[in-house]
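Structure representation:
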Amino acid sequence: MNSKPITVPRLAEMKQRGEKIVALTAYDYLLASLLDQAGVDVVLVGDSGAMVFSGRQSTLPLTMNEAMYHCKAVRRGISHALLVADMPFLSYQVRPIEAVKNAGRFFKEAEVEAVKIEGGTSMVGAVEHIVEAGMPVMGHLGLTPQSINKFGGYEVRGKGKEEAQQLVNDAVALESAGAFAIVLEKIPADLARAITEKLKIPTIGIGAGPFCDGQILVTHDMLGLYEKFRPQFVRRYLEGATLIKQACGQYCEDVRQGSFPNIEESF
């Protein structure tokens, strides 16, 4: 792993060199430190933590204080990766000045290096104000989980010609507003490629095919820890839930049978 820390300008250089960007999510110190040691380029403290960490049914209930808690814990675990905080629902949509103040809390209190917000042209004002205040912003287009009640489900976005063109327009608008990168979630691969080729800033895909400048997954999905659903676009690199249940089951059996602890494990 290159020990040089990842920065916003370095991500732009990676796109120019055709070097893929690797991103994953984390919500606690231990997992963050493991991702950092593994060589992940971007660690996102995602609002997905509302579901995979706190057991809620969507990302919407995550509060600023909860997000701040997770960011502070993750900050302690990473020294190489770029730390990005997901701004919670209604922390940036109401007024640009509120977006700036809430973004500022992440930078000042949790020492993040960027924030991520969902939405296209309607969020340009918020992006511009946050960037003008000296804080890097990552955009997020396609399936935006904070708008799940508007969409009515987790279906692929941008399949129709009109919506596809709107996503292209949104991406261009976010770039013009100063976003340094854009997450493209659950859109057709050809559309993701068209957006990626049109933009100077990096795109990071999740369920958006292989043509983006980088990829991100929810770590708990990738490790097989979250069992409630298994998206088609997730490749499981570990059946973590199965392994943990097996290990804990063995521990239960050993304790109940009196084989743990043994003499060597005693003082």
In short: Residues 240-267 form one domain.
